[in-house]
Batch of 4 targets.
Target 1
Amino acid sequence: MSKILVSLMTVAVVGALIGGGIYAYFSDAETSTGNTFTAGTLDLNLDGGNTNVVKFNVSDVSPGSNGGGTWTVTNVGTINGYLDLETVGITESAGTTTDPELANEPTGLDTPQLGTYLLAHMFIDTNNNGNWDAGETDILGTNAVPVAINTIAGSYGLDLSLAAGGTNYVTLRWSVPVTADNRIQGDSVILGMTFELQQRAVD
């Protein structure tokens, strides 16, 4: 009787151990902590900074005058982007009125005329030499166009790839043909533009 009781107790203990889930299988555990997500940056610099750049301040413009200037455009961010010329705006003023100017005005009134004669050609200056070369991308026209409100004002989808840390150059050449007459005397033109860097090309 006692042997049977001991045997039953042994079986019960073994069953309890098995039911309790005590095993000797191998195991290992590893961790994955500190997972971090940091947003990249898309940051456009114009001529090395983030402030307004006045590239032209030209006085005493006359028939035969010409010149140019180049913007250094840099993506100082960490994400590749696409460069666009977002807006171009033109403001014209009749400015100072002279007798010879009025004599050449068909209406006898002083109206802004410089924008009709002032020619502009803007392009991606790949080699940064200040001049348009074959194969370079035109922005305003394929040649010099008049800086008239209805001609160049607007938006331009360049979609020029500009990698993180990359630099490109945008040049504007301007001129006033010798055929311009007294009607431009005293007139002025203010040209404004906004460059934009976007993560993706504009549809």
Target 2
Amino acid sequence: MLTEASDRNGRPVYLVSDEAYWRIVFDDREYVSPTDFYPWSFLIYTYGKTLLTPGQRLGYIALPPTMPDREGMRQALMIAQLTIGGHGVPNAALQRALGDLEKLSVDVKALQRRRDRMVESLRASGYDLHSPEGTFYLLPRSPIEDDVAFTEQLARDKVFILPGALVEMPGWFRISITGNDDMVERALPIFERAAKAAR
């Protein structure tokens, strides 16, 4: 499809594949990168997501070996990084730790157990949500139309979620399953009460 669009436009349509979560895949699935199949691709990866350290700026952009004029594109990316002032450059400690960081990941099986527990319980409480195949977020539909008001209601009971309106998904909300199991168990009855109150 992208090759056909490139041919129609007379120039390549580039694919940017954000693969920050490729290691966080559930149910023993295997992640396959679209960059394996399309030569005009940029693979973007950050260690911050995999290690739950989003404030740390350490990652990379990889170009497939099959990308036409790959060296010219690599040089353009280097110039762009220098032009913006080097803000995307990791500090020296992170650069030295890279070999050790490459071996680390969050406990995917623990995230999967939390996903399963929350999806089952939220569905039983009447929430509409998909069971994700990876990452560490759940995206249920808000039981009331105003997702911001719903998140404020839960915050009063110290359950903190992200309103979908902030990520261009009004009417939904985002739950992170990176908290510990006790936090999940404490939150589930609060979600259930909120769903009942919305009926």
Target 3
Amino acid sequence: MRTIESVDLLALWERGASRHALDRSALLCARARPELPVDAIADLPLGEITASVLRLREAWFGKRIRAHVNCEHCGERLELIVSVDDLLQTDGPVSRDVEAAGVRCRLPCLRDLAAVVGERDAARGARQLLDRCLLDAGGGGASALSDMALREVEDALEAADPNADLAFDLCCEACGHVGMAQLDAGAVLWDEIDARARTLLGEVHLLAAAYGWTEREILALGAERRASYLSMVAP
């Protein structure tokens, strides 16, 4: 993979701007994994999606990720700087199937999340998700599992696919509260794509108004030359 060109970035941004967050993750993973059929992306384990998207982000914007989160206790806005290598425990799932609490299931995928995304009750949604992933549905499925058994299965799934849910400890410097922060790889990369795309559109607008150039002509300029022209026309 290499740094994305301005024309390609705008085309990608246009394709994903109106999509649901899960569809954007699939779009980004498809860009990271061009060797895979597009239809296969939604069936990849979630951790594999996350690793692919973060590696794509690394190729386009570098290893270091700068993000912000509000302290859940006092509301202080905290800045986080993490690296892709620190976040990823592996570039792929340890195993695609797990056995725990007397059931066998496969790892959840984007298609599974899309099927339960409308469920507002977290506990019900977790059981619906597990029902979709059960490989042996005997004994009443996920609804027959106790809360303890459900947690056991969830722990086994997390151990098999540690990148599926990237979470880390966070300490607020303002109030001392210690909590957890989660990172959505698709959202992080998309926010950066969106910011860069809007910057590019602003540059095109200024240069087109000043010189009458087309978007294609402006984007074909090297970054340094485009910046030089902008410095002469920017208010």
Target 4
Amino acid sequence: MASPAHKDGTFLIAGEFIPGYAEKLGSLLSHPSIHRLGHRRDVAELMKKSDLLVLPSIEEGSALVTSEARGCGCVLLVSDASGAICQHMENALVHRARDVQALTEHLTMVHQDRSFLRRLRESSLSTVNDLTWASAGIRLANVYRDTAKLKRA
């Protein structure tokens, strides 16, 4: 518990662990600030009540959950391997995969500076409409149009 956030913060873990992983974490999971919730059907509601989504992935394709979290108002604390669509220090905090010290520093930053957390959240929410399927469709249509123009030229 290197970050002071564990003193008055709560770390919620939604979902299940792969076999053997909870045992590997051992007593860390028994800390009073950590709550294992198991499988949830109300993930959006859970995210709306949370300040952060922490996803320190070592390997990920494109984590849809990060876009969903942004839409719910969670600030992302993610690794550079998460595939999250975000900008470090603008609307999220991004650490290098496996950099536990940087993740700890990021947790401490948002814990100690709530106005910084608020600015990250506001910035994230101001651009969240860029993450919709409609927005992606418009970008794709523009790419097709530009490609067709190049082919004709």
